[in-house]
Amino acid sequence: MRSLIAVWRLARVFAHVLRGLLIISLRFGSLRPAQRHAHVGAWSRRLLQLLGVRLEAVGQGRPGAKLLVANHVSWLDIAAMHAVLPEARFISKGDVQHWPLVGRLVVGVGTLFIERASKRDALRVVHQTADALKAGDTVAVFPEGTTGAGPELLPFHANLLQAAIATEQPIQPVVLRWHEPHESFSTAARFIGDTSLAQSLWRIASARDLAVRVEVLTAQATAHADRRALAEHLREQIGAALIAGMR
Question: pTM of the prediction?
């Protein structure tokens, strides 16, 4: 029975992705930013719904330019955050843009790509992020650099935080907690090790009562901050909120 439900969900998701590609190809270029954000938010919420994921949103994003910093569990984290914070432009690893269908979507919504193995490329993305923040954009980053098994957090990389410090734009932490009945931190949502995108999709579509809690914490100033100390502070803050949400 669960297999039939998963197949039905994935068939509808495929159609939804094709619809998203059509919107990006035919309409996005002529839309104002607010209209684009409305499409991104609605599309992301619908994607979660089609996959059987219940969205729990807590807190609100600060208006205007900001750097969002979140823990990283799943490739679906982007959709979960876009469902609540549709204005976000994500920083993602470069190979995502080559994923079938999904790659075209993430490129279309203004994602910034980084080759994580290259220090020179990290510097380029810091400058690109700073330019986006100065232009009034919201940029989102996963400072762990990769997905973790959770709930324990991986070390936070501090480099990309420099963009917010240099432009004196605020950082707003976001806490992502995927959970399901009898699991305060979902195993179905994890995207770690050698798990392929197809395998992850099947696990998520097959899950029963999977939910994601997106908690937006209070924004904080960055002027004159030390990026390494700031990274550690954000890691502690997000980790504490994550553990508190599991109780």
Answer: 0.92
